[in-house]
Specification:
The complex is a heterodimer of chains A (643) and B (350). With 643 residues, chain A is an alpha/beta fold. Chain A has five domains: 5-134 and 634-642, Rossmann fold (3-Layer(aba) Sandwich), CATH 3.40.50; 145-236 and 312-327 and 490-556, 3-Layer(bba) Sandwich (FAD/NAD(P)-binding domain), CATH 3.50.50; 246-302, no CATH class; 331-488, FAD/NAD(P)-binding domain (3-Layer(bba) Sandwich); 564-626, 2-Layer Sandwich (Alpha-Beta Plaits), CATH 3.30.70.20. Chain A is 28% helix and 25% strand. Chain A contains 16 helices and 34 strands. Chain A has a five-stranded parallel β-sheet with strand order 8-7-6-16-29, with helices on one face. In chain A, helix 5 packs antiparallel against helix 16 (630-642), helix 6 runs parallel beside helix 7 and helix 11 (395-409) packs parallel to helix 12 (429-437). In chain A, 45% of the residues are buried. Chain B folds into two domains: 8-98, Orthogonal Bundle (Fumarate Reductase Iron-sulfur Protein, Chain B, domain 2), CATH 1.10.1060.10; 103-349, Fumarate Reductase Cytochrome B subunit, CATH 1.20.950. Chain B has helices at residues 8-13, 28-32, 44-52, 55-59, 63-66, 72-76, 83-98, 103-109, 111-131, 136-174, 180-196, 208-228, 238-264, 275-300, 307-327, 332-349. Helices cover 71% and strands 0% of the residues of chain B. With 350 residues, chain B is an all-alpha fold. The chains are: A alpha/beta (643), B mainly alpha (350). At the A-B interface, helix 12 and strand 26 of A face helix 3 of B.
């Protein structure tokens, strides 16, 4: 069928037409083969122009259109929708980017920019001439979502999904829910404690029948893809068949001969092998840490609900989408970093928060009452080139909030903040103001003059060149030095690798686009939420959790998914299964299949992204990328080279 | 290595400093200040040193005196940290640091103590009058002597030693050596600033403020001269009599305006009046007013029968000379001038 193509060239206000002579472009392409009409327009994306396009297509029975405007990242969907409204298959629309790739890039050379625009539009016309109507692939989507990580983000996401009537599997690795938030005390701005917040959410969780919560559980295996993830989950036993009586449980804990460092208190204290972190912790049953348990049986003898013979269970889950909310680890300073593990009075902010929670009447370290506290900011954040260069966002606020809490609880204490510029953005600025009013002292260094901690003759001294007082060297004797540590990715992020989630330069999981697609990943069907994506405070984590829940829901809500038909296809006759393409495929979309007793490659349409990496490695040219066939690409090159 | 003291800020609040803790060091105050220069930058640096409690540096600093309180910094401060009032409080604090007796500090910090001091002086004057059986002639005779003796004694025992202390804190601690000739050659600065306050012309605000202040200073100094050396109250010379009337009337008019502005709080400088500010301006007003009335009573020949009028004047005068001049706000007349003098000397040493 002979093509009747409509070409629309956009001024973009002046973004394009200030540098590209759009009228000249129009004239130059009017006589190209297949071009039925050519128009320039002030804003191609405007409602009025969209309407004109629909009328043009319908009125002239156009069977192909080319839009030359901005990047397709912005308006591809806009013009695909225009095509569909005009009953034209949307794959018959071809885009030419003459703004980002032309007018903006060549604002110094108007003639050259116009010449380039002509060629780009001609190439697009060449492709439009060969374009064929395509039908999106449809795949079944299992209406259930697996949320990995039962911290604040995971819990909120699970609740949000459940409220949309979507079955949720909430999978938490630790024996208790709540993640990091459960460890914090009073929090800004609600004045709730972490424990209260988690308790509230837990009650919300268990009220909902379509949420299945697994604690002590890990995803060990993943197969499948968007709409159809098959997960294997290993669930560790709690070694309890029911709840022991409070008194018995305490006796059982007291009887346990094993003592290990308590991670919940960041190793400040010790706990037994049979333990719980707080009396109100959820699930309310205690647990036994089998890595350290000696199976002496003393606890079993006290409470008959304890059963050391319980075994791990492996479950199979079938879900349409996976929401990752695996959280962060606090940065652990290197040995000797600001005196960490070398000077006695140095600890990290998370440790100090726990210490504050555990301290009642007096704040005591090594038998001495604490009067002066030095906080050193940006530990593990904003480091030099090869370290963690990012800002961890929450730490300024957290340190200041903690210092205010200290001052409220122990009024005689003086706080000294050795910072590198305070970043208490938004409402958090109120805390900074409060702390200033309480008389806290802020000393500011920079990357060239970081604070130094020394501990000699029983005195812990912190000094810095304060850039706010003309670089005067200021020294403070501190009874306690708190290292305000930032966030780093989880030490064990293997669950991300299992899903092949890409990581950013900061080693956190990476979204597709920070602003345009903030919770989606390059792995279709897998969304990310909370601090596994990068440093976030609780509010930001919860926001991203709700966004990710909505996105994950959108994958599974209809029970069916449409995917792009632009994927690779295999010519069964030419393919001889040399296996070269599987290595080239970044998405594991290619496998081997037997067709009429011949081994050939098989493309998984729901996984293939149409990136084209497999095409050049195929020695027999058996692979073709739909909509980017050799024919189409060659005709575009011809059009570009002809100029 | 500098030591810091977080308690200093609290102490400074007793001298009238308000909310300076709120400062987040943006430097807007310094940017808008028309007197701040790259070499002598303030007020932010002064706020910083106050927050950190670097007392020694503050004691040696002349910067509080280099500010003439136009109040732009306070108007533009995004944190309402009131830099202008902080500078004012530092001047009060410095005054108490210079004062070897320590009385300045006590009076600045405690209003009850100030009131007690004023009452004691009043009782002293009345007792003295009673001891003289309220004889107007002897009382006025001694009153005249008292004025001369008080001026001499206050200068010799309080103000002179305090200026020496200021010189020690500023010049000696700076470690800069200057010859006596430089001191003498530069002394012009001292007198220019003492009598003209010309630096305040550099402030961006209404220069009428400078004019009023200038007239007040000249009027005050001349009235002092007219009463002490030309014996206004006793003189028969028409010129002297008229001169005294004009001077005391000027003092009265200008101080009424100052008091009005402190009541209306219509300028940054008059928004946060401390007791020391009120006493200073009201007593100056009372001095002008009572001097005027006493001289009128003398002129009308009714002072013998109305000795109470003279006793009020003498009480105001005694309170002024024994409390406000040595330990109160009057001292800014000296310290500001010497600050400009020392500043010029330090500039020469560089």
């Amino acid at each position: 069928m002979k093509k009747k193509i409509g070409v629309y060239i956009c001024h973009c206000g002046g973004n394009i037409s200030d540098y590209v002579d759009v009228e000249k472009v129009k004239k130059s392409i009017e006589d190209e083969g297949g071009v039925y009409l050519a128009k320039t327009t002030m804003f191609a994306c405007s409602d009025s122009n969209q309407k004109d396009m629909v009328d043009d297509i319908k009125g002239n029975e156009l069977n192909g259109i080319v839009v030359a405007s901005c990047s397709p990242k912005l308006h591809l969907t806009t013009f695909r929708n225009v095509s569909e409204r005009a009953d034209l298959n949307k794959y018959n629309y071809v885009h030419a980017n003459i703004r980002e790739q032309d007018s903006w890039a060549h604002s110094d050379d108007k003639n050259g920019a116009t010449e380039k625009a002509i060629l780009l539009v001609k190439a697009a016309i060449a492709k439009a001439r060969l374009a064929e109507p395509l039908i999106p692939n449809k795949i079944q989507a299992q209406k259930a979502v697996a949320v990995i990580g039962g911290g604040i983000a995971g819990m909120k996401a699970a609740i949000a999904l459940s409220d949309k009537d979507c079955p949720v599997y909430l999978i938490e690795k630790a024996p208790f829910v709540g993640g990091r938030v459960a460890q914090w005390g009073n929090m800004f701005t609600s004045n709730q404690t972490g424990e209260e917040l988690i308790t509230k959410l837990y009650h919300e969780l268990i009220k909902r029948k379509n949420i299945t919560l697994f604690t002590g559980a890990e995803v060990t295996h993943n197969a499948g893809s968007i709409g159809d993830f098959r997960l294997k989950v290993s669930v560790q036993p709690r070694y309890f068949t029911g709840t022991c009586e409070e008194k018995q449980l305490q006796q059982a804990i007291d009887a346990c001969p094993v003592e290990v460092l308590d991670e919940f208190n960041f190793n400040l204290t010790k706990r037994k092998a049979i333990y719980r972190n707080a009396a109100s912790e959820y699930p309310q049953t205690a647990t036994i840490d089998m890595e350290n348990c000696t199976r002496c049986g003393k606890c079993e003898a006290i409470c008959d609900k304890i059963d050391l013979s319980q075994k791990e269970e492996i479950l199979d889950l079938h879900v349409g989408s996976v929401l990752m909310a695996t959280g962060f680890d606090p940065y652990t300073p290197a040995e000797g970093e600001y005196g960490y593990n070398e000077v006695d009075n140095v600890l990290t902010l998370p440790q100090f928060v726990r210490m504050l929670e555990l301290s009642d009447k007096k704040l005591i370290r090594n038998g001495k009452e604490i009067k002066n506290i030095a906080y050193i900011y940006c530990v593990g954040s904003r480091q030099e080139e090869d370290g963690n260069t990012y800002c961890s966002r929450y730490c300024c606020t957290s340190a200041i909030h903690t210092s205010v809490e200290v001052k409220k609880k122990f009024p005689g204490v003086y706080n000294y903040h050795f910072n590198r510029g305070i970043r208490t953005y938004g409402k958090q600025e109120l805390l900074y103001a409060e702390s200033l009013q309480l008389g806290d002292i802020y000393l500011q260094g920079d990357e060239e003059s970081l604070p130094e901690v020394s501990g000699e003759s029983g005195k812990t001294m912190v000094k810095v060149k304060d850039i706010l007082s003309a670089g005067r060297l200021i020294e403070v004797e501190a009874d306690l030095v708190v290292l305000v540590t930032g966030m780093v990715p989880r030490a064990d992020n293997s669950v991300g690798s299992m899903f092949k989630l890409p990581k950013g330069r900061d080693k956190f999981f990476n979204e597709i686009h920070m602003k345009l697609r903030p919770v989606e990943t390059f792995i279709d069907g897998v969304t990310i939420a909370g601090a596994c994506q990068g440093p976030k405070n609780i509010m930001e984590s919860v926001n991203s959790a709700l966004a990710a829940a909505t996105k994950s829901y959108s994958y599974v809500s209809k029970g069916e998914l449409e995917t792009e038909p632009i994927v690779a296809e295999v010519d069964a006759e030419l393919c001889s299964w040399c296996d070269a393409c599987t290595a080239a495929c970044p998405f594991d979309a290619i496998s081997m299949t037997n067709e009429s007793s011949k081994a050939i490659a098989l493309i998984n349409n729901s996984v293939c992204k149409g990136c084209g990496m497999c095409l050049p490695v195929c020695p027999t040219d058996a692979l073709n990328l739909i909509a980017y066939s050799n024919n189409e690409i060659e005709s575009m090159i011809d059009a570009l080279a002809a100029g | 290595m500098a030591g810091i003291d977080p308690k200093f800020g609290e102490a400074l609040k007793n001298y009238g400093a308000i909310n300076f803790n709120a400062c987040y060091n943006c430097g807007t105050c310094t940017a808008v200040c028309s007197l701040s220069t790259p070499e002598n930058s303030f007020p932010r640096e002064m706020i910083r040193l106050s927050v950190l409690g670097m007392e020694e540096e503050l004691t040696s600093s002349l910067k509080p005196w280099l500010c003439y309180y136009c109040g732009e910094c306070t108007t533009y401060c995004p944190q309402t940290a009131n830099p202008g009032e902080l500078m004012m409080s530092l001047r009060r604090w410095l005054t108490s640091k210079y004062d070897w007796t320590g009385l300045s500090g006590l009076l600045y910090k405690s209003l009850p103590l100030t009131i007690v001091a004023f009452l004691l002086v009043a009782i002293g004057v009345i007792s003295f009058a009673a001891s003289q059986a309220f004889n107007s002639e002897t009382i006025m005779h001694y009153g005249h002597y008292f004025e001369m003796i008080a001026i001499g004694a206050v200068f010799a025992f309080i103000l002179f030693p305090n200026i020496i202390r200021m010189w020690y804190f500023v010049m000696v601690r700076s470690g800069k050596k200057l010859s006596l000739t430089t001191y003498v050659k530069t002394s012009g600065e001292l007198f220019i600033h003492m009598f003209t306050q010309k630096r305040s012309l550099g402030c961006d605000d209404n220069q009428f403020r400078w004019f009023e202040h200038f007239i007040l200073v000249i009027g005050y100094l001349m009235l002092l001269f007219t009463t002490v050396f030309l014996d206004w109250f006793g003189s028969q010379n028409l010129f002297v009599i008229l001169l005294g009337y004009v001077e005391s009337a000027l003092i009265f008019i200008i101080t009424v305006d100052f008091v009005k502005s402190r009541i209306q709080k219509n300028r940054e400088v008059s928004k946060n009046s401390q007791p020391s500010d009120w006493f200073f301006v009201i007593w100056l007003l009372l001095m002008g007013l009572t001097a005027l009335l006493v001289r009128s009573f003398i002129g009308l020949g009714i002072i013998e029968n109305n000795l109470w009028m003279y006793l009020i004047h003498l009480t105001v005068l005694a309170q002024w000379a024994l409390i406000i001049v040595p330990f109160g706000k009057w001292t800014h007349f000296l310290y500001r001038s010497f600050a400009m003098y020392f500043e010029a000397l330090l500039a020469k040493a560089n």
